[in-house]
């Protein structure tokens, strides 16, 4: 056990207990803690009560024989292998229970000998430790398998035997079905292992229906990623009670006279932000960003808060939204509807003639939205001169903000978003790229101004802040980018200060559009992933020193935390007049003491949502393309493997495999270090970033998988354009991982 100073009389403090648990070499239970601090008699009874309080406060988890800090892992515990990454087994705690309901930590299993003898789904008893680079575990013994749910589609072969076809495009192996459970061929089902051996097959436990039916694609993602989608009765009941809270005019600023407008996508399911501006008579503007006052309704410590914390954010699919909050709040009471009085947290700020925001203040207010307008409609009114003064003022104020944005020179990357358009029956009508309008930029720049104001306002009060952080590219990625640019005879001097403007100027100097697309892809891959955290590291992409998310509390828990902090910092508390609701609207004491834990959890939940959304769109793309098999498309290589290439259709997305067997009548060697395939006889090289024309050979809507072949058919020569991205080290985004490396997104969704 860890050595401690000579025990002092009385109980140890909470921090002393946490320090002991963290430093102990063996499982630390009540007995070990009492012995370490020299507790006897009544002190042991008091310790038991203290440990119970700490568990209820969310400081520790476990039982009397072995405690660990909340969000951590027990010293000895059962783990379940969830992935094999380059020969290393990755596992999570098998029985993860946390009052935060945060996603479980991922541990790297350090096995003796070479290679991993473990497989996905295996359970092991392991000794764990937390290191500077993350959690690792040392397996002690393998445990019997337990039933895990598997989602797939039932297939019946010619012999009448059932098989479970996977819905994950990375899994190509069907499992034999030992018990159909009444399921029929073609149905989407849930199953579990029928026995301990893989040869035992699986048994169907639930029939979900037609896998191609409306909303089936999002259902697949929800189950695959474990996204919470059903609210329990306690949460729904609290939401109903919260929805009836009266808006006290004595505690709120009355802004119902302002013609505030909400400008949103035409298919928006909720409206949590609205804007207004008017000239100040000195060349500048007074502006208001009104945000749904979610913290008034969702208070720390209640069932609503626990559920929102667990979800982290809303998840948006083409066919449905999985909201962070129950519909009575997210789509009704909190949503800023036109013509209805709503509770708002408001950022008032002043825009100088130069575009610089010179002052700001935050209030709780009552607002009445003048109009909810789609981006396209707002743009049309401006373009055709049919806009009312409130819209004209917004555009004029934005031109000031736009000038300040240009002076700041944030990263400007063209990141088109795919939009899946469904008809009333839920069938695909079309898939197109979202058009980028000035209306989007107007809203985005107002939101950025309010987000900056929120961060700086909290800093001015020395208040806890959940920052939105986007760190500069690492040196490793910059070296890889430098090497890549050299293949175009372009230079990147690593001795200079790397700024977003440097990348902007680099792209502006590229005249050839195909070359520009390749360089933009390389710049994008060099970026880090944005995340939430309590320690400020700036926002590189936006070229901002302090940045927080304030503008979307209906769909992001991070914004809700910022609202609570603002309420505390500026004396905006709104006590609940109902005894059956938590009383306070500010940050909980627990969050004030440590925002790292929840910041990490909501960052993980955001990444989960992004992956689920992307996979669902891929399935819709595959379904859309299934009627276009045989057509030829312009594609770009996104990944190179020993068994072939992955390529994406330009302007549409969705990765597809080009098997090595169709590339030509010669052998191809896989250079793992450079991530390229090289023809043995011709020297033809295929690498990440190159463009080529490919014929669509297969499109599987169930998995989202596409398969390509050369334009002239399998085995024919493929003409590649551009130079492959030089990759020197595996594991980073420059190592050919598919998809976008970060979550810098246009239209104010993610920044």
**Share in β-strands:** 25-35%
Structural class: alpha+beta
The total strand number stands at 33
For the biggest β-sheet, the strand order reads: 3-4-5-7-6
N-C termini distance: 45 Å
In this structure, how is the largest beta sheet organized? 5 strands, mixed, barrel
How many alpha or pi helices?
17
**Unreliable runs:** 1-8, 728-749
Mean pLDDT: 85
Helix content: 25-40%
- Morphology call: globular
Gyration radius over CA? 28 Å
Total domain count:
5
Can you describe what's shown?
- The N terminus and C terminus are likely disordered.
- A five-stranded mixed beta barrel has the order 3-4-5-7-6. It has a five-stranded mixed β-barrel with strand order 8-9-10-12-11.
- The protein is an alpha+beta fold.
- The chain folds into five domains: 56 residues, Arc Repressor Mutant, subunit A (Orthogonal Bundle); 68 residues, Nucleic acid-binding proteins (OB fold (Dihydrolipoamide Acetyltransferase, E2P), Beta Barrel); 62 residues, OB fold (Dihydrolipoamide Acetyltransferase, E2P) (Beta Barrel); 317 residues, no CATH class; 92 residues, OB fold (Dihydrolipoamide Acetyltransferase, E2P).
- The protein is globular and about 80 Å long.
